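Message: A physicist's question: would you kindly supply an amino acid chain plus fold tokens?
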Amino acid sequence: MLALALQTGLTLLEHEQDAEIVEAVATGPTSAHVALRHTRAVLLSLIEDAKRELVMTSYVTYPVPDLVRALQLAQERGVVVRLLLETVAGSGGALKFDGSFAFRSLHGVEMYAWPVEQRIQGSRLHAKVAVADGEVAFVTSANLTGSALDENLEVGVLIRGGPSPRRLFDHFHALISSGVMRRI
């Protein structure tokens, strides 16, 4: 009986350790319902904490110097950085320049786009996600622009642990390895 109780306790502990910790992140006007945790601070922290690999997606990107610097420092630490970005063609002309433009000063960063010929007409690469090491994911409404990171009303969730970060990480890897996302 004691052995069964101990085994049950260990199993519960293992599940608790695997549990996802979800934190709301909001930039812009505050309310009593969501503590303001700046989108920029959460994203920069996620990049700084990455140890092996970082996958990020965005529809719109503008040069944000501290974001570019954080990605550069991550690379210098040996982190593989993969960016999945929208293109002018993919946006149907809604964007004025390809997402890769904002990161043109980075060398060695892997950049990918979703080719127009593989899409349903009118679809966009609209996801805004950052995943570090398959362990932490930030899913947000914020594009990689200064306004989105600091000023706009943006909402997201930071997920630590559990299966969701790994599933997102694996999803983007599958899109890359299957050729749905092509290196640019």
The mean pLDDT is 91. The first strand starts at residue 21 and ends at 27. The CA atoms of residues 131 and 137 lie 4 Å apart.
